[in-house]
Amino acid sequence: MCRNRFRAKWAICKYSRARHEYLAIAGALNQIGPKDGPPCFPSNYIADMAGAGLNGVIGVLLALAARDKTGKGQFVDISYLDGVLSLMTMDALDFFMGAEESPRGEVI
Fold first, then answer.
1. CA-based, 20 to 30 A from 82: which of 6, 23, 44, 70?
2. Could you say which of 36, 48, 77, 82 is catalytic?
3. Is the pTM of this model over 0.70?
4. Total number of domains constituting the chain
């Protein structure tokens, strides 16, 4: 069984259900949009597909491998926020190492 949750157990927005809030909390929303303009909401690509979807597929494949070895099923619990945070690894590393923030519209 695989469950995609909107938030981790420790999430800041306890009652939130909008995926763009998780993009903002993770810092991804600040990187998307035109230079000197407001952030753009990227449909469902980042939070749904790249964040929770990719981690869900990896979790299900690992659960299937574990079932082949142990004969027991697994419960895969995926968080949208955790998935988006994992996509921000390089930006977070730059931030915590004191590098300048890349301006919106100038990131790859």
1. 70
2. 48
3. no
4. 1
